[in-house]
Design brief:
The chain is mainly alpha-helical. The protein has 2 domains: 2-35; 68-115 and 193-390, Hypothetical protein af1432. It contains 21 helices and 2 strands. It has helices spanning 2-28, 30-35, 37-54, 58-62, 86-89, 101-113, 119-126, 131-139, 142-152, 166-173, 175-189, 196-222, 228-236, 240-248, 262-273, 277-287, 292-299, 317-337, 359-365, 371-374, 378-390, and strands spanning 74-75, 81-82. A two-stranded antiparallel ribbon has the order 1-2. Helix 12 (196-222) packs antiparallel against helix 14 (240-248) and helix 16 packs antiparallel against helix 17. The chain is globular and about 100 Å long. 39% of the residues are buried.
Length: 392
């Protein structure tokens, strides 16, 4: 009997351990798959898509974004079907691979006739290793330094105390904001280019690019992009093709009055130049010898305007940069041409704004869908609005 009394508790303990092991294997471990089947499925799908993308040729990647000729509905992240606007159904973007030699030669001549950029713009495109490098480049040009200090001390930035140096401006405003101001000031320092209408249009374009660059840096940091400063530089030069349209064609500036939207502007660009600004900007960047990252970003800069047929390519880090650059440029345009001063008024679900029709879908594909809610967050909204106010 004493032995039985000793064995029974051990048998009970062993039985409890066996029950606990069975419970862990069949209930607890299985629970996550029951709660989050979509997440695991999406991970497998993204892996498959990534493998498919590696097998794509460069020519296929150029054609991965096309208009929807049959008017198929677009499915957004909320899983509600929406009818694609007719203007987007009939829109086709230009591709460099689709240009014949005669058209390419004509566009190369246009690029050759556009005045060379201020030397510091090429330095901006190449990127600065540190804020110190940016300071050194700017202060070597007294005219640029005076222009930037005059701008940052204007009523637009509403500073409590005056900024007295470029280094102070970088510390207070951030590198991306100062880079945008440098780009804009360098254009003004280059002297008169074209007619009065062309000069006004170019000034607006660089103003928009400055806002876009600052927002690209902010959004990149918020979403943990690996190199937000590079994203900001891409956004700063995303409008290079617009500059080429305005300065290279007599009537090119007409598409930049009254704040035309991108979809409408693309049609004007193709009518005037035979290609859209994304394609022409790529050629100009190559002609000026800008880094490959800039020309590649320019070539893809309009893709988020339309639907992405290759879903594997639409979920990559490269496309995340592309989407954030596109979003930042649309914010820059709204701020410049329509006086946007409250980011909360930039509604990604605005059915009237066809330029952002596919953006919710693209943001969802790259894991950035929360940006729509972020724009309504009080703290982030104040941060964005301070930035917008500085460029007014």
């Amino acid at each position: 009997m004493p032995e039985a009394q000793t064995i029974v508790p051990w048998l009970s303990l062993i039985l409890l351990v066996l029950i606990w092991i069975w419970y862990r294997q069949n209930v607890v471990v299985a629970a996550p798959s029951k709660r989050k089947p979509n997440r695991q499925a999406r991970q497998r799908l993204h892996k498959q898509r990534g493998e498919q993308r590696k097998q794509m040729s460069s020519s296929k990647r150029e054609a991965m974004v096309v208009s929807d000729p049959e008017g198929l509905s677009a499915r957004g992240p909320d899983n509600e079907d929406r009818e694609v606007p007719e203007a987007l159904q009939n829109l086709t973007l230009s591709t460099l691979s689709g240009l014949d030699s005669e058209v390419r030669d004509r566009l190369q001549d246009v690029c050759a006739n556009i005045p060379e950029p201020h030397p510091i713009q090429k330095q901006l495109a190449a990127g600065f290793d540190s804020p110190d490098a940016l300071v050194e480049a700017v202060v070597s040009d007294a005219g640029l330094t005076a222009n930037i200090l005059r701008t940052v001390n204007s009523a637009s930035f509403a500073l409590v105390a005056p900024i007295t140096s470029i280094r102070h401006a970088i510390t207070y405003l951030g590198v991306s904001v100062v880079q945008g101001l440098v780009a804009k000031a360098s254009v003004e320092a280059s002297g008169d280019q074209g007619s009065e209408e062309q000069q006004m249009a170019v000034a607006k374009i660089w103003q928009s690019a400055s806002v876009a660059s600052a927002f690209a840096q902010m959004l990149g940091q918020e979403l943990g992009v690996e190199r937000p400063s590079v994203l900001a530089t891409k956004a700063l030069f995303a409008n290079l093709g617009d500059v080429a349209i305005v300065l290279g064609f007599d009537d090119g500036w007409c598409g930049y009055t009254n704040g035309k939207g991108l979809a409408e502007r693309v049609l004007v660009q193709q009518q005037v130049a035979g290609v859209d600004a994304a394609a022409l900007g790529t050629l100009l960047a190559q002609h000026w010898g800008l880094p490959d990252e800039i020309s590649q970003a320019l070539e893809c800069s309009y893709l988020p305007l339309l639907d992405v047929q290759d879903e594997g390519a639409a979920s990559t880090p490269e496309f995340l940069d592309n989407v954030l650059m596109y979003l930042s440029c649309r914010i820059g345009e709204r701020a410049t041409y329509q006086n946007l001063r409250d980011i909360g008024d930039f509604d990604l679900a605005d059915g009237e704004n066809i330029d952002v029709f596919f953006l919710p879908q693209h943001l969802d594909n790259v894991g950035a869908a929360r940006l729509a809610q972020l724009f309504q967050n009080a703290a982030f909204r104040r941060k964005c609005n301070r930035l917008l106010g500085g460029f007014s």
